[in-house]
Amino acid sequence: MNLILWYLGTATFWLVAGTSIGEYMGIKFVSPDVDHVSWLSFGRLRPVHTNMVFWGWSSLAMVGLGYYVVSTVSNAAIYSIRKGYQTLLLMNAAVISGTWCLLSGINNGGGEYREYIWPVMAIFALGIIITLINFLQTIARRKTKEIYISNWYIISAVMFLIVIVIVGYVPWWQNGLGETIIQGYYMHQAVGMWFMLFNLGLIYYFLPQQLNTPIYSYSLGILAFWSQILFYTLIGTHHFIFSSIPWWLQTVAIVGSMGMLIPVFSGTTNFLMTFRGNFHKIARSYTLPFYLTGILFYFTGSTQGTAEAFRATNLVWHFTDFTVAHSHITMYGIIAFMLWACIYTLVPRLTGKEPKQGLVGAHFWMALVGILVYSIPLMIGGTLRGFPGRKAKRLLTVFR
Questions:
Q1: Distance separating alpha carbons of residues 397 and 279, to the nearest angstrom
Q2: Quick check: 262 and 302 in contact, CB under 8 A?
Q3: Model confidence over 307-357: pLDDT tens digits?
Q4: Model-level pTM greater than 0.85?
Q5: Where do the H-state alpha helices sit in the chain?
Q6: What burial class does residue 94 get, using C-beta atoms within 10 Å of its C-beta: 0-12 exposed, 13-18 middle, 19+ buried?
Q7: What CA–CA distances, in Å, run from 188 to 183, 195, 231, 377?
């Protein structure tokens, strides 16, 4: 279907562009005077990089793959191809206009991951609303009575994104500490209830199909679904431990972060048990290594997020490079590996052409080695850097 290929093609463009900008920003850490152009300053390029990877690469790829999965598991044609193209244009228009605004110094005032001004994000949100309508209309025309679990995850993710954008951009409750609380909500819900929820829905379809094995446990999938909705919506403020935010709200975020072990453990168990008896297939497949790596990153990265939430560990890791490594493991380790697994599964089916396995293998190993070389030193350095600060805080507590 040409619609899906357009989504995946434009998404790949934004991945290359956004990651290249990130690489250039890395140069500035060692050569801060490499240029003297205001448009290329670190403060402008950083939000361009993050938003391009968020809304350009990940979101477009997810929606494109979603059009295939929602239609296939519903055994019904997409309700409106025209609406699909409308969303494609709107999402790309939002990324293009948002990038131009950020490079020009026009932004939302410093809210991390919501630097796009509201008219830009309104364009993006309109595309998502059209997508939700299109998906719901497609599912309403399904030929089967049941709604497969992939559609549970995908539809919920789209619905949550609309809520997230409204909460993050409507200014009525964003005064004083309210702005900080909303920032934590927006930042974390975008990752957990949009990117993660949607990608899990994709994996619940593509992984069993690629292994030619039923999903291990439908019940574990339902447990992971509802527990993620219950706990993930509570954890945004665990980024603001020891801040002026009410102590009880910080505690709720820590409890919610601990509760996230339920969906992470149940989801990972479900995927790995689906792999059971099929691990020998990995050596002969260019897609399964991406699936397995994405799942392992899902477990380690998500568990790492829980570990960071406690007050004792927050004293060590917060405001260090450890959190930088964690965020990149999430978007480049979990989300990107899962998306490329699904893309390499689907595109040959749509085009009838297989990619060169040597190039796919090079892609996999370069991506894996790259994220490990990037993240492991930052985690070690962040931990070493955090311990002196922790000791200083303990001394202050003693003298008080």
A1: 52
A2: no
A3: 999 998 998 898 899 999 999 999 999 999 999 999 999 999 999 999 999
A4: yes
A5: 2-30, 42-51, 59-74, 81-103, 118-140, 149-169, 177-189, 197-211, 218-232, 247-259, 261-275, 288-309, 311-317, 321-328, 336-351, 357-399
A6: buried
A7: 8, 10, 12, 24
